[in-house]
Amino acid sequence: MKNIITTLKKLFYLWRRSQVPVKQPIKISRIDNLIIFLVCILISIISSYKLLLISPLNIEDIFSWLFTFTEILISTGVLILVSKKENPTISSRQIFLIITLLLAVQVTKLTLASTISPFSMIIPPALILSQGMGSITALAWVSIASLTWPDQEIFINNNLFFILLVCASIVSLLGGRIRSRAQLLQLSIFVPIGSLLSQWILIGKDKISLMNKEDFVLANGDIFSDSLLLAIAMLFTILFIPIFESVFGLLTKARLLELADKEKPLIRRLSLEAPGTFEHTLLICGLAEEATRMIGGDIDLIKTGALYHDVGKLHAPNWFIENQDGSKNPHDELDDPIKSAEVLQAHVDEGLKFARKNRLPKLIANFIPEHQGTLKMGYFFQKAKEKNPDINEYYFRYKGPIPQSKETAILMLADGCEAALRAMNINASDKEALNTISNIIYSRKKDGQLDDSNLSKGEIFLIKRAFLNVWKRIRHRRIQYPTSKNNTFS
Ligand SMILES: [Fe+2]
Ligand SMILES: [Fe+2]
Asked: Residue 344 CA: which ligand is closest?
């Protein structure tokens, strides 16, 4: 019996280890929660109040209203939960965007349903949400927005409703994957053409059968003007997406790729003023990208985050060994380990200042402090200990926070491994390289740096293999630069 329990416990432990833990959601303030709840109530009232306008009103009508009201309130709640599940770090501003778009669509349905096509009401917001918050959130939004019609008398023809759902689903699915503004433009042309053709085939010229209510869509269901309006609405949406990005802190794929452009002034400055750091950054990009691909993380996010992780070194490039080029080390002249540690911490603080100045999205700025976490600056700590054995370790640790996502954790590991792999002998075997990688990762793990990252054991194993693969690729063309054994300068 005892054996069975032990085996079951072991199996349960193994099962738990194999599960990828979920990220800790961002806490939303009470006031924000209250406002979100009130907007949800407003949406439910707008969508259902017409049921109460029937006269004479009997108890069945009140129950029917109550049922619709509750149904819409629950649907909106489910929508928020879905968006939180897809984006664990979603902010209250972004939830406001989701429900405000829903509210706007419900109000438009109520006031302009007879003049505006349902395509132009549902598809453009779906494009914004899929770009900024992912396909699943957009799909959930589309299903709720297209199901809740405030005016029960307005009921869309089945074929039209089917085409609407197909077009909105295509936009939601593709919108979450699209990586450039040019592809967005193509989508805004092809989707209206697709809707025009499918309406033509499935509904035809029989305008009476298009709607149950004749005056629903512009020009009594004029298919052409319907699709033209959709194309115009989508083009305007694409035009306004950058505004949504900055107001609601959305991070679209297109924005990520724009930021990853090496001609961006900040990156250009890094390559000119801190060439060693720039080279280190490019190598880290390679390591981190491969590891993220292995574990199925967000490659565009880590590539961009890696590019900006050490921009803070621009405040004093020659204080970092990779930029010293054999010249004097200012730390030796300073001969004060505590001051040297302050200079190292400053590359994080200054990096955050650069991020604010250059309006980098929060998800990118997070890479700056989290890639150093609360790591110990071992080299300077040892030096300080030689002078004063009782010195407090606190002065020689970065201020953190420790990595809060898989991507920032991978960057921390890549940052640690890059210098060590570079310093390795060119004839080192794969086993030696893997040992070096494993030791660095183990020391970070033991130090508690990966505690909040949600990286599972299996993922850490894959990260090690990915780093080894990249090292095998780059060892033939690597350039050695002096690096300390303790990797204190990275
Ligand atoms: Fe750094
Ligand atoms: Fe770095």
From this structure: 1
Question: Which residues, given as ranges, of the chain have pLDDT below 70?
Answer: 13-26, 113-114, 150-157, 204-222, 476-490
Based on the number of CB atoms within 10 Å of its own CB, is 63 exposed (0-12), middle (13-18) or buried (19 or more)? exposed
pLDDT of 426 reads 76
Look-up of token digits 């809060």 = 404
Ligand nearest the Cα of residue 415 is 2
3-state SS class at 211: strand
How much is the mean pLDDT over the chain? 84
Tell me the pLDDT tens digit for each residue of 309-346: 999 999 988 898 888 877 778 888 888 888 999 999 99
Q: The dihedral of CA 469, 471, 474, 476: what is its sign?
A: negative
Q: Ligand 2: distance of its center to the CA of 26 in Å?
A: 27
In terms of Cα–Cα distance, which of 490, 310, 341, 326 is closest to 418?
490
> Are the C-beta atoms of 288 and 414 separated by less than 8 Å?
yes
Strand partners, 397: 376
Which-ligand-closest: CA of 277? 2
Quickly tell me which residue has 């405030």 as its tokens: 150
Quick count: other Cβ atoms within 10 Å of Cβ 60?
Answer: 8
The alpha carbon of 269 and the centre of ligand 2 are apart by a number of angstroms equal to 16
366 C-alpha to ligand 2 centroid (Å): 14
What the block records as the tokens of 13 is 């432990």
Quick one: pLDDT at residue 125?
93
Rg (Cα) of the chain, in Å, rounded?
28
Other C-beta atoms within 10 Å of 238: how many?
18
Rounded to 10 degrees, what is the CA torsion of 122, 125, 128, 131?
Answer: -30
Predicted local confidence at residue 65, as pLDDT? 87
pTM of this structure: 0.77
Residue 170 CA to ligand 1 center (angstroms) comes to 41
Task: Quote the pLDDT of residue 219.
Answer: 40
Distance 416 CA to ligand 2 centre (A): 8
pLDDT of residue 476: 65
Ion ligand 1 — residues with CB under 5 Å? 310
Q: What are the phi and psi torsion angles at 486 (to 5°)?
A: -85, 0
Please give the Cα distance from 404 to 406 (Å, whole number). 7
**Quick one: pLDDT at residue 60?**
84
Cα(347) to centroid of ligand 2, in Å? 10
Task: Output the CA 367–ligand 1 centroid distance in Å.
Answer: 9
Q: What is the pLDDT of residue 20?
A: 44
**pLDDT of the residue at 27:** 74
> Are the beta carbons of 258 and 364 closer than 8 angstroms?
no
> Which of 411, 403, 138, 371 lies closest to 252, judged by CA?
138
Ligand at shortest distance from the CA of 416: 2
